[in-house]
Amino acid sequence: MKYKVSLLTHQFSRDGVVAFYNSLIMQPVFVEGRIAKIMGALGNFEKADFFKALDFVPDALNLFQSLTENKIIVAGHVDEKGIVQWYADEYTGRPKVKIMYMILTDLCNLACEYCVIEQFASDHVYRHMDEKTAEKALLTFSPLALAGEQSKIILYGGEATLNWKILVYVLSRVNEMKEQGLYPQTLEVTLNSNGTTITPERARMLKELGIRAVAISLDGDEIANSPRVFKGGQASFSKVIQGFQNCVDAGIDTGISCTLSEESLARFDETLDFLLKSGVKSLGFNLMKPTKGYSVSEGYYERATECIIKAFTVFRENGIYEDRIMRKASVFARRAIFPFDCAATGGNQMVIAPDGAIGICHGTLASRENFVSHVDQGFDPVANPVWQEWSRRSPLNMPACFSCPALGICGGGCPTQAMVESGSIWDVHKSFCIHAKMILEWLIWDLYDSSVSQRGAPPAT
């Protein structure tokens, strides 16, 4: 039988060692560089050719078995495009809404330079969600939340706490609906907030009403936080810190949503030190998305990813969960396909605007693109063409991603940003592509270094 190096196999080199990596199997095989060079020259080969070319390798049989088991080497007739299509059929095309974003208001008391909220037209009339709309939204989500998988409601804005009355109503009503069997007991409600209006009393009320977690937007110390100012231009840092601490003191699981602005990257050691001293146990880094009011410098995504990796290595030694790398590290460790990086892809979320419009991505709240239904109309994601299309928007279904080493672990980034960058959700999210490839290569060599440390010798043959 003829063999070949799979079209899904990629090589990563460092210090004379080569990592062979199949982008869907996701189990690296480490070899000496000279072995990789010989294998690259074999073309289509018989098994005997392999052993003849590598007769200097003492355990060539074990190497061959490892290479075939992990699909680095495959039978010559294997159709890799057909294999990718099988994975695409297996993992995509079945929208199932598990997350509902409730935009309680599109108004915010801050004027962060990089925020999508700042993209509203100058004559935009800001709006709070009213009780009637909130009730209809909760009823719309009820059958979807009962469908069997872990479901979640995310209270969002603008600044959601500016509509405090409805925020309290939603939390209270969810508790009632759980008792009535309209929501599963496992449903979680979380809040994203800038923290500036969360007083000790409000924090205690959130805890009493059963909020699962609060994510406070905080980009680092006072200097790193300088783009996050009140509408009048005053610094917000002290108010944010007060709100964060009030949530912690109330016993709420409180995390940080840290956007890596140019300011925070410029002083990342200070940013990292601040986050460590904050006492936070979970956080997520956000990559900048250029807006009409805020641009990023050349090389931003490389620098931001390097900083995220640096932070992750520190955080894991201190028991701090960082979401952006962990969502990839966990699937890498399990060798599990990661078809979607955001819940909108996969058709797994719905967004309720303050006026009751239903969309798939909160990033298009200003333009209202892909807001195609309303809480007054009823909503079935399985029958909706937007949710159907987004449920397939994965690298597994994108020809441009076929030859990418991060095919199985990337998730495709943000469709909305791909549309901004290139005109279609089906275009590659180029800036995220940089990030995903860097994370993958780091994971591969982190595994290698860990193996060397544990065994005292490289696992390479």
TrEMBL record:
PROSITE patterns: RADICAL_SAM. The keyword S-adenosyl-L-methionine applies. InterPro entries: 4Fe4S-binding_SPASM_dom, Aldolase_TIM, Elp3/MiaA/NifB-like_rSAM, rSAM, rSAM_sf, Sulphatase_maturase_rSAM. Belongs to the radical SAM superfamily. Anaerobic sulfatase-maturating enzyme family. Residues 94-333 form the Radical SAM core domain. One of its GO terms (molecular function) is oxidoreductase activity. Its cofactor is [4Fe-4S] cluster. This is Radical SAM core domain-containing protein. Keywords: Iron, Iron-sulfur, Metal-binding, S-adenosyl-L-methionine.
